[in-house]
Amino acid sequence: MPGIMTLPEIKVPGDIEDVLNAVKMKNPAEPEFHQAVVEVFDSLRPALAKHPEFRAARILERIVEPERVLMFRVPWLDDQGKVQVNRGFRIEMNSAIGPYKGGLRFHPSVNLGILKFLAFEQVFKNSLTTLPMGGGKGGSDFDPKGKSDNEVMRFCQSFMTELWRHIGADTDVPAGDIGVGGREIGFLFGQYKRLANKFTGVLTGKGLSWGGSLIRPEATGYGCVYFADEMLKSRKDSLEGKLCLVSGSGNVSQYTVEKLLDFGAKPITLSDSDGAIYDPDGIDREKLAWVMELKNVYRGRIRKYADCFKRAIFMPTDVLVDHNPIWNIKADCAFPSATQNEINAKDAANLIMNGVKLVAEGANMPSTLDATRMFLDAKILYGPAKAANAGGVATSGLEMAQDSMRMTWSRDEVDNRLHQIMIAIHRNCYETAETYGTPGNLVNGANIAGFLKVANAMLDQGLV
Ligand code: NDP
What we know:
about 475 residues, Rossmann fold, 5-stranded mixed β-sheet, 5-stranded parallel β-sheet, 13 strands, about 15% strand
């Protein structure tokens, strides 16, 4: 028709490479999203060969397209009375098996592509938990670091003033992630309640006296260690006496260290964006309590650890170096628990050369595609994030169940359920990897098992 410009239609024929090319073309400048899709699709080949019905229904093309993307302005006033403006997001990726569920991240690096990678991963992770949860993710490029409590509150209130109309206990249930802990969830929940005039389980990670669950703060770290224990058991080994590298020093890292100590392992490192500490004597319970106070109360930097504990050394971050020194310390196990792509090919080579037996991912997508392939080729125990760190969202699911019942479970009850879920996730990944002809490859196991449940639900529900 004259006057109407028609864009060339993107060709999306049958095979995986064509779908991947279309994803890259349609979503330019989103490298993390491309990386997450490539990793999942690479694993799906044997499953797609067995199930032609998924290709016929164009499940791949549909599963990479978010059901809804929200992007909004977040204006707020700082302590000097100056206007600040941030960008808010919520990616509602897939609701085939339950309401959208996934955390909010507040960090200056946040952008659309990073949240799409996280939301995409979340779909398969939530499917693995055995609980009925769809996948979503959100956040803002707001940096809570160095802000006063009042500034964080004003930001959270402004963020929720837009988000509240899109979420709900049966629609979309956000939680915490990097930069969003108990303080932020409290401010967000308060504003939601005020606007919606409803006290519901619309967020997880809530305080214990207002709908939260025991063990939720601990769940991701504890779950990751339970998963590592299962991986080691599959080779008749255990965590007892193992030297462990842990990166990050936030929520996931702190409770990873705590649970490693319960299992008799010896954690020897922690880090933040300024650098890493290495303590050859091990981070014991007393030192961990000191770190928790430093990070959660004073919001201080990890370099202080080396001032306080004299045998420890601090290794500052150096962006000009091609590897991260934390992954070049001799150890048996590695628990990357800070952020995406924190282990590159050089780091993976260092870990393998130093004899690491196990990598369990607490952070989301902490290993680059090359690093992942190197771990798989080296046949070490490798627990990918969407399986190893699923304990956090699983316990969020348990919080939702308690909220719906208007009841609370004891610490032991929740911890026991979390432990059983992690055992079940490991078994599912392990057995699925075998069924599809790649025994021991938990990346394939996790991706295929997570995908099948969601894809079958999408088939059942028709073209929506
Ligand atoms: P926190 O904000 O509590 O801690 C994050 C830690 O990682 C901090 O030590 C932070 O250092 C460091 N970090 C963050 N970004 C960077 C960066 N770009 N470079 C170097 N260090 C960085 O977050 P969580 O512990 O909750 O989350 C950590 C990881 O675990 C994330 O990948 C998250 O998606 C994942 N995860 C979290 C879950 C949860 O329940 N919380 C559930 C499942 C996965 P600094 O303070 O200097 O920024």
